[in-house]
């Protein structure tokens, strides 16, 4: 398994988000995490990359355990993950190219290979022509493509996407989901949280977070 929750509990005060929760995701899998707004999907995503830690139980992800999480190994874990946010979180003072190359630079990617890798990813995402543009000049869809490029440029084992279509129109949302599907077909596992059932491809696994529990569900279109 690339990701496994074992008896995980987490609460904000008296508001319990996860209650003795078990959940797992296999290498190369594609899973949607659904649930109404405010149910705790974003909290679960933060637990996945150890931005917060479980108050009880454990999380194993990409060979790392929450029980041994510290300032030394959390950065090493995140080198194996790609994270995509609803609000993009791009570096406004860097170009599209710079937003991706920065990730490779901080992960000690060979300098002579950075340009080729970044341009390859941007080409796959259909935004190579925007490599010298700054985020403020991009549309929402272009910004999200850039954010996805930043997430995958370091060839992660797992991409965690938190409401990646939340700020996009339906047509652009469909294009973004197709990009994630293409990434998954190349072997990268995907965990994508959404409250928009319309974007879900039911050929993938669908999990619902409700009242602190995660259960696998089927959704009829």
How is this structure best described in words?
This protein has 221 residues and is α/β, with parallel strands linked by helices. The protein has two domains: 1-80 and 157-221, Rossmann fold, CATH 3.40.50; 91-155, no CATH class. 31% of the residues lie in helices and 27% in strands. It is built from six helices and ten strands. It has helices spanning 41-48, 73-78, 96-106, 111-124, 140-152, 170-185; strands at 3-12, 15-25, 30-34, 56-61, 64-65, 81-84, 158-162, 189-194, 205-210, 213-216. The strands form two sheets. A six-stranded mixed beta sheet has the order 6-7-8-3-9-10, sandwiched between helices. Strands 2-1-4-5 form a four-stranded antiparallel beta sheet. Strand 1 (3-12) and strand 2 form a beta hairpin. Helix 3 (96-106) packs across helix 4, helix 3 (96-106) packs parallel to helix 5 (140-152) and helix 5 (140-152) runs parallel beside helix 6. The longest helix has 16 residues, at 170-185. The radius of gyration is 17 Å and the shape is globular. It starts with a strand and ends in a 5-residue tail after the last strand. The mean pLDDT is 93.
Radius of gyration based on Cα positions: 17 Å
Could you name the CATH class of the largest domain? Answer: Alpha Beta
First-to-last CA distance:
29 Å
The SSE string, one letter per element, is EEEHEEHEHHHEHEEE
Low-confidence stretches: none
Helix content: 25-40%
Strand arrangement across the biggest beta sheet: 6-7-8-3-9-10
Number of helices: 6
Computed structural class = alpha/beta
Q: Strand-residue fraction?
A: 25-35%
- The rough form would be described as globular
């Amino acid at each position: 398994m690339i990701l496994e929750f074992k008896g995980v509990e987490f609460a904000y005060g008296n508001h319990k988000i996860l209650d003795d929760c078990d959940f797992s995701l296999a290498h190369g899998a594609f899973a949607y995490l659904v649930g109404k707004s405010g149910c705790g999907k974003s909290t679960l995503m933060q637990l996945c990359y150890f931005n917060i830690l479980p108050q009880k139980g454990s999380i194993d992800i990409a060979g790392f355990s929450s029980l041994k999480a510290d300032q030394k190994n959390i950065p090493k874990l995140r080198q194996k993950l790609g994270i995509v946010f609803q609000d993009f979180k791009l570096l406004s003072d860097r170009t599209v190219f710079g937003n991706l190359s920065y990730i490779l630079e901080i992960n000690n990617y060979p300098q002579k290979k950075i340009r080729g890798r970044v341009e390859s990813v941007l080409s796959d995402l259909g935004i190579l022509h925007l490599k010298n543009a700054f985020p403020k000049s991009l549309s929402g869809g272009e910004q999200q493509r850039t954010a996805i490029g930043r997430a995958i440029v370091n060839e992660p084992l797992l991409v965690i996407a938190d409401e990646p279509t939340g700020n996009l129109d339906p047509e652009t949302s469909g294009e973004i989901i197709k990009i994630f599907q293409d990434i998954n077909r190349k072997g990268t596992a995907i965990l994508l949280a959404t409250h928009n059932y319309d974007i879900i491809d039911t050929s993938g696994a669908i999990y619902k977070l409700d009242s602190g529990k995660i259960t696998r569900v089927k959704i009829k279109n």
